[in-house]
């Protein structure tokens, strides 16, 4: 049986879950981008009078920060969706163990869970882009669509290693490492809010290596129309490798967790 | 349905020797049978059940389920059996009916058919009125019944029940026994683990007694009692601290009327074909126990005989 059809067998489960929670999430998924873009883009941006050449080609700080916010938001959503809900499924509610007692295999269970995360990312990103667009931060409609697609890839690529880690952890204290060392420093220092050329050379290199920088730069290229094929392909390859490699790690670790 | 030869399970532990939870057991379960694994906590029952459920890899020996090899055909095996695990794995945020429905879908059963079966199973475990309730609001007994209903959703040829009634009050337990009894009458093969003797006696046609990863006895409840115990047991209780010191006197008082006398911290057990006669002999010898009770021998006595320990602490 193909993993595609096995994963689809879980669609009713995830649909039921989604129906229970969408009301809570729909409001915040509109509000978050609005607050961000008002606070960081409009208000903070009002104080920032930088030369466009120092903003990686963005005409305004608002236009500079918008793609950074979008990529950072899909990262945060992805990390959230691949930590606590996963621990719930392996430890608190043990639903993965219930699924594992049926014809579903670790591969199918992981794929369905990840597919659900992907759908959430798609929804979050669509709302985010729709809220940002009226502020004129995308140079064109294709630019907005490109930024949307790429930001989804960013979330998925960052969520994958987190999922791979989460399926094997014993309790929630293991997650503080991810939030303190992974999410917060990346959020602040990976070029979402200021060009990383402002960092010291060593830190700039470190920032360049983070997945969020790769994603922010790619999203920004698309939304500003400053596409450079060479760097863009590097970013894409980086994110795709992350996705593929850690998918394998995730399935292996989940299989080990379930087959004790 | 199940054929195990020299079946083993060991767990790797960090910085230690692997721990052997199951140390080479032979088990044959036939179609339509109600088969039990009886043993104290830590005997290796759940480890065995997880291997049979095709979710835990075998560490040694051979295992065939429904004629298939769990190492290669796990998914297929799992599609044809039902599992009620020791630890609940229900989604407590979903309703009772939703839990059944989504679970049935995992087997690839069509939506309309799953709805029909879910309703029938809810009826069977008497939870129809609670169909719309969230699982977190159910009592322990109701959750167990729901888990059993869930294990039946794929119309399984065999159902594995790991301690189905542990932690339930007597009333809830009797309701469950009644449902399991009906399943058995429908021809479903049942494999049950328990550390309750009365449960094994009630439900099992045949059972194995496990202790420390090994099978120490095998047979029907009646044949095990016949082999390892006596028809009746007289329990006599002396004052606190006097039970052990009275054992010698009791033994000589009952003489050949009893097969043996077992000393427990709070009482003495006299194994005898005629329990009343044994108690009379104790009184005739001038001994004055504070309480006496004559009862039928049970699997508890079998276990005590085999391992020197009581089953339930
Ligand atoms: N995942 C595990 N890792 C290490 N030891 C385990 C694991 N699961 C069970 N054990 C040990 O194996 C023994 C048998 O456990 P189990 O099969 O659950 O017994 P039972 O179900 O009869 O109470 C116990 O001593 C238990 O501590
Ligand atoms: Mg157990």
UniProtKB/TrEMBL annotation, chain A:
Superkingdom as given in the UniProt entry: Bacteria
Record PROSITE patterns: ABC_TM2
Any single biological process term in GO: response to antibiotic
Ranges annotated as spanning the membrane: 26-48, 60-87, 108-137, 143-165, 177-196, 232-251
Residues of the ABC transmembrane type-2 domain: 24-257
UniProt topology in membrane: Multi-pass membrane protein
Keyword Transport: yes
GO terms assigned for molecular function: ABC-type transporter activity
Localization per Swiss-Prot or TrEMBL: Cell membrane; Membrane
GO cellular component, one term: ATP-binding cassette (ABC) transporter complex
PANTHER family referenced in this protein's UniProt entry, alphabetically: NODULATION PROTEIN J (PTHR43229)
Name by which UniProt lists this protein: Transport permease protein
Source organism: Nocardioides mangrovicus
Phylogenetic lineage: Bacteria, Bacillati, Actinomycetota, Actinomycetes, Propionibacteriales
From TrEMBL, chain B:
GO MF annotation terms: ATP binding; ATP hydrolysis activity
One Gene Ontology cellular component annotation held by this UniProt entry: plasma membrane
Main location: membrane
Keyword tags: Antibiotic resistance, ATP-binding, Nucleotide-binding, Transport
GO biological process, one term: response to antibiotic
Statement: the UniProt record of this protein carries the keyword Membrane: no
InterPro entries for this protein: AAA+_ATPase (IPR003593), ABC_transporter-like_ATP-bd (IPR003439), ABC_transporter-like_CS (IPR017871), ABC_transporter_ATP-binding (IPR050763), P-loop_NTPase (IPR027417)
The keyword ATP-binding appears for this protein: yes
Membrane topology classification: Peripheral membrane protein
UniProt-annotated location(s): Cell membrane
SUPFAM superfamilies tied to this protein: P-loop containing nucleoside triphosphate hydrolases
ABC transporter domain location: 2-237
Record protein name field: ABC transporter ATP-binding protein
Organism: Nocardioides mangrovicus
């Amino acid at each position: 049986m193909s993993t595609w059809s096995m994963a689809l067998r879980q669609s009713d489960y995830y649909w039921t879950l989604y129906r229970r929670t969408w009301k809570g999430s729909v409001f915040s998924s509109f509000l978050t981008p609005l607050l961000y873009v008002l606070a960081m883009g409009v208000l903070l941006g009002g104080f920032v009078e930088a030369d466009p050449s120092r903003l990686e080609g963005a005409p305004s700080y608002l236009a500079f920060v918008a793609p950074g916010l979008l990529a950072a938001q899909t990262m945060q959503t992805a990390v959230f969706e691949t930590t606590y809900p996963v621990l719930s499924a392996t430890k608190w509610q043990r639903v993965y163990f219930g699924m594992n007692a049926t014809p579903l295999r670790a591969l199918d269970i992981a794929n369905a869970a990840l597919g659900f995360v992907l759908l959430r990312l798609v929804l979050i990103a669509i709302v985010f882009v729709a809220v940002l667009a009226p502020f004129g931060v995308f140079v064109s409609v294709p630019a907005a669509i490109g930024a949307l697609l790429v930001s989804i890839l960013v979330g998925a690529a960052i969520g994958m290693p987190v999922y791979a880690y989460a399926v094997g952890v014993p309790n929630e204290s293991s997650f503080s490492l991810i939030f303190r060392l992974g999410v917060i420093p990346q959020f602040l220092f990976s070029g979402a809010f200021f060009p990383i050329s402002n960092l010291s050379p060593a830190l700039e290199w470190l920032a360049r290596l983070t997945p969020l920088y790769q994603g922010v730069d790619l999203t920004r290229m698309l939304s500003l129309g400053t596409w450079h094929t060479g760097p863009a392909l590097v970013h894409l390859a980086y994110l795709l490798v992350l996705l593929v490699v850690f998918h394998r790690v995730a399935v292996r670790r989940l299989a080990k967790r379930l087959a004790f | 349905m199940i054929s195990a030869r020299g079946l083993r399970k060991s767990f790797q532990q960090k910085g230690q020797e692997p721990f052997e939870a199951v140390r080479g057991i032979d088990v044959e379960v036939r179609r339509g049978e109600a088969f039990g694994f009886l043993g104290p906590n830590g005997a290796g029952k759940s480890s065995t059940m997880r291997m049979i459920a095709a979710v835990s890899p075998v560490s040694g020996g051979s295992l065939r389920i429904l004629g298939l090899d769990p190492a290669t055909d796990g998914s297929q095996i799992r599609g044809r059996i039902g599992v009620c695990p020791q630890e609940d794995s229900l989604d407590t945020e979903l309703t009772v009916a939703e839990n059944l429905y989504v679970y049935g879908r995992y087997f690839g059963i069509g939506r309309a058919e799953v709805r029909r079966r879910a309703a029938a199973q809810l009826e069977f475990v008497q939870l129809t009125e609670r169909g719309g309730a969230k699982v977190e609001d159910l009592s322990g007994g109701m959750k167990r019944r729901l888990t059993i209903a869930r294990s039946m959703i794929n119309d399984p040829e065999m159902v594995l029940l790991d301690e189905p009634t542990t932690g339930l009050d007597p009333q809830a337990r009797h309701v469950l026994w009644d449902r399991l009894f009906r399943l058995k009458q429908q021809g479903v093969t049942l494999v049950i683990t328990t550390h309750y003797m009365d449960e094994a006696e009630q439900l099992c046609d045949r059972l194995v007694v496990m202790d420390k990863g090994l099978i120490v006895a095998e047979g029907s409840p009646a044949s095990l009692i016949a082999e390892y115990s006596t028809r009746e047991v007289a329990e006599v209780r002396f004052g606190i601290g006097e039970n052990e010191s009275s054992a010698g006197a009791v033994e000589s008082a009952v003489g050949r009327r009893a097969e043996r006398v077992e000393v427990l911290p709070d009482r003495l057990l006299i194994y005898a074909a005629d329990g009343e006669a044994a108690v009379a002999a104790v009184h005739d010898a001038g001994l004055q126990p504070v309480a006496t009770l004559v009862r039928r021998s049970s699997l508890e006595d079998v276990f005590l005989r085999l391992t020197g320990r009581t089953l339930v602490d």
